[in-house]
Amino acid sequence: MPKIVDADQRRELVADAVFHVIAERGLTQASLRNVAQRAGLALGSVRHYFDDQAELMEFAFRVNSERIHLRALEKLEALEAEELPAEREALVEKCSGVLAELLPLDEPRRADAVVHMEFMLDARTNTLLSDAAQDDYRATGAVVGRVVLQLMESPLATKVLAPVDEAERLIAVLDGLSLRMVLQPAWSAPEHGLATLRRHLVDLITP
Amino acid sequence: MPKIVDADQRRELVADAVFHVIAERGLTQASLRNVAQRAGLALGSVRHYFDDQAELMEFAFRVNSERIHLRALEKLEALEAEELPAEREALVEKCSGVLAELLPLDEPRRADAVVHMEFMLDARTNTLLSDAAQDDYRATGAVVGRVVLQLMESPLATKVLAPVDEAERLIAVLDGLSLRMVLQPAWSAPEHGLATLRRHLVDLITP
DNA sequence: TCTTTTTTAGCACAGATGTTTCACAAATAC
DNA sequence: GTATTTGTGAAACATCTGTGCTAAAAAAGA
């Protein structure tokens, strides 16, 4: 009967336009009109797939959050599946590889991190995004927590760690690095941030 | 001749209104009208003291940034003036006292931190705020850097530290903690964040 | 009291935004 | 082919925004 257009694919296309607008001009500029133009659609088309602006924004937020965490989870599950490296260096390399998916180390991840920051900050005052923000907190908490557990399970970890405390500190390091790298890329280059993360992980397992 | 009104005082009053609006409803709601209403002034009055919205925002940003850093600098200079504590615990206590001024540990500091975050993130895409953001980066870099130097000067510091690297990591911890405490106060209580900061400082000077 | 200067208040305009509504185009099923 | 369902596009509306402009009010000097 109808014209066939994959609705889910269309929604993701619009979400991608949201990401581009936010990355380039900030969340305040992510109006329906700007998003529609960036997506190459008419305003009415966008509104055909999203009843509300609120619905669009929550959808985009969740896509962004899931994209980031799925990337990290893939690497994490690979890490958990195989044997833990016997070398300190290799262990840190594996773990930092997982967590690096949360950092803006290249252009796509940078865009993701920017969008993520803007949404999280907006969720503070925008109650329509608070549920998605809660889910995001849980997701990163799970990823980081599981990485810390991997570190502790290794016989290389000579230090006795309090997993919850160290996970919290590690989350702070990640958030802080991400923020700096996003806002001040001139001073916080990708290799620089990654090196700081690696040093922190080394500190965790060497007394 | 004229009605006498202290212009500088008036500008600070308006800036305070900006802070309240941002803390309660976010930067996007900090319109001239909302700010004027919060300040108990007419729109025309606000515009009498600030030609532009841009001028108001940069002024508010700088007041916020200076307020935060001046608080920390006061404590820092007190720390640098007196003898370094001989007890490890006392040293960490002093240093964390300085850096705690950068964290949202009580309501006024929480409001400052929220406003600070919103401005910093906005400065990414708002070129009119980028100069103020640069000055802010330098200011926190100076404060944190001097604290790290204090830690290294103490004979209690058994570890040999790379000051620049550790300052960068410490800044990340502070930014990350601040972000978490601002966005997720339910999970990141003030005492909790302060404890994490203290643990990090202890880790810095104990091998 | 009158004058002068600052402060305050308000109106009006152009632009942008979310939303509603409606008409049209397109593609499939009969 | 025709009908029906879905997708697309545009116009219109109310609201909010920054800004320009004008006029009243207030306070200090003459």
Automatic annotation (TrEMBL), chains A, B:
The keyword Transmembrane is annotated on this UniProt entry: no
Full protein name: Transcriptional regulator
Chain ranges of the HTH tetR-type domain: 8-68
GO molecular function list: DNA binding
The keyword Transcription belongs to this UniProt entry's keyword annotation: yes
Keywords, in A-Z order: DNA-binding, Repressor, Transcription, Transcription regulation
Species this chain originates from: Arthrobacter glacialis
Top-level lineage group: Bacteria
InterPro entries in alphabetical order: BetI_C (IPR039538), DNA-bd_HTH_TetR-type_CS (IPR023772), Homeodomain-like_sf (IPR009057), HTH_TetR (IPR001647), Tet_transcr_reg_TetR-rel_C_sf (IPR036271)
DNA-binding residues (ranges): 31-50
